[in-house]
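Supplementary Note 3. Input sequence used for the single-chain structure prediction.
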Amino acid sequence: MLSISVPVSLAAHKGVIAAQGAGGGSKTWSMDNRRSSSPVDRRNSMDVPAQIKLKQQETESCLLSSRLRRTAELLTFQLPSMNNRIAPVFDPFRDCTPFTCSIEILDPQGVIPRHLHDEAYELFIVLSGRADLYLNQSDEPVTGAEGDTLLVKPKNVHSIVNPDAAEKLYMLSIILPNETFAKQVWNGSYSGKLGTADVSHLID
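The predicted structure, written as discrete structure tokens, is reproduced below.
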């Protein structure tokens, strides 16, 4: 079991837990009382991606002290020009988190294209398969195998390649702070629930 603790000072990233809109940074909820360690649930239905409602993924409150999501119930999405599938596990829209936690699946020789995050740290935990991480201008990858963890700091251009010609790559990814990632995923193309083979692979 991997445990990650987020301090209050980071959870209230710059005093605001924000879910940015597609057109740029509308605040969905904020910290009313900066002495409090608990965020205020102020989700505005106009800010919540439509697919959360369409796929019946709404939550009554995102201020519960804990939450359980089962792997077999996770939905997957694809971003434009990307062939990996992303299954949100926890995100700001449903859980009031300052991060997004997802399962990412790359088909054999699949690629997450080069990109960067202005403020976010991105953590990749390799659940199964191999991940070649390319940083900035380097042509030499850092290779993570099952059980390895890769960290990319803000403002670093990076891409991930599944070098295997036969096996899928499964990763748990965490982006902190969320920036616009959760919005992009929920506005992506719906690609169904995690397949039976994927679920079996993850929980066996």
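The domain at 8-203 is CATH 2.60.120.10 (Jelly Rolls). The helical segments are 8-11, 50-54, 92-95, 181-186, 196-203.
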